[in-house]
Design brief:
Layout lengths: L7 E6 L4 E7 L4 E9 L5 H5 L7 E5 L3 E2 L18 E3 L2 E2 L12 H6 L5 E3 L3 H11 L2 E6 L5 H9 L10 H4 L5 E3 L6 E6 L5 H8 L3 E6 L5 H5 L5 E4 L10 H13 L3 E4 L1 H9 L4 E17 L4 E13 L1 H5 L4 E7 L5 E6 L4 E4 L14 H17 L1
Parallel strand pairs: 3-4, 4-6, 5-7, 6-8, 11-12, 11-13, 13-14, 14-19
Antiparallel strand pairs: 1-2, 1-9, 2-8, 3-9, 10-12, 15-16, 15-17, 17-18, 18-19
Helix pairs in contact: 8-9
The protein binds glutamine.
The site of glutamine has 12 residues, from strand 16.
Length: about 375
């Protein structure tokens, strides 16, 4: 597909604002919450991250596609974003490790891709006016039809999406002879989390998003993990119950992003939809316990209430976001439980926070020593 064949396309926002672009590939129509990621690398990891399910992704990096794709950069088994908006889409790539080009990869999913968009203006607009739904389309002559279709798209607030991306049946990951066993709740788990746990000697059983504590306990695990995932944490009632049961049993528990939000809800801390989320690979976080900063990978549109957290005597804030002071990490004061809003597994992003996986394994080992 050459440059001259690109069809005109539009981005229609929920508030009626229109941006223009060109379709890369065959075009079409897609809907979802529009959000932006400021990462300069890592597009394949972003596009396959289940946490982005249902979202139209605007990339702020000037070029997308220029280093191709490889199977090792996949965070799940398929493309999860609902659409892609970029400035320049490169149909050619140069990278020795690449196994193919991004366009063919995305076309397998019939993804609607727009390029030649003034992404700087679009991102500034979303940043000022807040997260909202959008429709992207090459059907530019049917604006009323697009408006009607957009009006039927549910708001991200209140939306349960883990059921759309979670495994349907439990599966295993890692070496079954490992001496640490972890039961992980798959709310939309990224592969790099499993890689990080397995590389530290864990054998993991991954359970569907609505699994109970009893089901997860049947694996006889040494610790429990609640994963990242898409959508609003509030409707995840079974996951919150499961987290409460894990807490009541005082079993080791670690949560990342959506899992962190579920742990907060299980402790009576409310969550809220942010004006705009944090999505990028250079988000600065303060580690309260060490007094040191961490540069972190982030991808969330909801956050936990700082006020509720500060008023909860069972919970301490361990990390906060240095840009806006939002809560970035918590721990339970008397139970073996901690969680972070950001992504220590990176995929993509910096590795400043991988120590959190070591902390989880150490927590499990210390609990094991006590029980032996
Ligand atoms: N990466 C995640 O787990 C995201 C959590 C949640 N869907 C949010 O947007 O806040």
């Amino acid at each position: 597909m050459g440059y001259l064949e690109k069809k005109d396309a539009i981005i229609l926002l929920e508030d009626g604002t229109i941006f223009h672009g060109k379709a890369v590939g065959k075009g079409g129509t897609s809907t979802g919450e529009i959000c932006f990621n400021t990462g300069t690398t890592g597009y394949q990891e972003i596009f396959t991250d289940p946490s982005y399910f249902g979202q139209i992704m605007v990339t702020t990096n000037a070029h997308i596609g220029n280093y191709g794709v490889t199977s090792v950069d996949e965070e799940s088994d398929s493309v999860k974003i609902a659409g892609l908006i970029c400035k320049n889409f490169s149909e050619v790539f140069s990278r020795e490790a690449a196994q193919g080009d991004l366009l063919s990869y995305l076309e397998k999913k019939d993804l609607v891709i727009l390029s030649d968009v003034d992404t700087r203006a679009l991102v500034s607009y979303i940043r000022d006016n807040g997260a909202q739904n959008a429709i992207i389309s090459t059907e530019i002559d049917d604006l009323d039809g697009l408006k009607r279709q957009l009006a039927t798209v549910p708001s991200m607030k209140g939306l349960e999406l883990s059921s759309q991306v979670s495994c349907k049946e439990p599966y295993f990951y890692g070496d079954e002879n490992s001496n640490i066993r972890i039961s992980a709740l798959d709310l939309g788990i990224k592969k790099n989390i499993l890689r990080n746990l397995a590389s530290r000697g864990a054998y993991i059983k991954v359970f569907p998003f609505d699994s109970t504590y009893e089901q997860m306990k049947s694996f006889n695990p040494d610790g429990y993990f609640l994963s990242n995932g898409p959508g609003d944490p509030e409707p995840l009632t079974q996951a919150v119950l499961t987290a409460k049961d894990i807490l009541n049993a005082e079993d080791p528990l670690f949560g990342i992003c959506l899992g962190h939000q579920v742990i907060a809800l299980a402790n009576g801390i409310s969550t809220f939809k942010m004006h705009n989320g944090h999505r990028g690979i250079n988000h600065p976080v303060m580690n309260v316990e060490t007094g040191k900063g961490e540069i972190t990978s982030q991808n969330h549109g909801f956050a936990i209430s700082r006020e509720d957290t500060e008023n909860n005597s069972d919970i301490s804030i361990t990390h906060y976001h240095l840009n806006d002071n939002t809560v970035a990490g918590i721990k339970h004061n008397s139970k073996p439980c901690f969680s972070v809003q950001y992504h220590p597994e990176a995929g993509p992003g910096p590795n400043d926070a991988t120590y959190l996986f070591d902390q989880f394994i150490n927590l499990i080992n210390s609990t094991k020593e006590v029980t032996i």
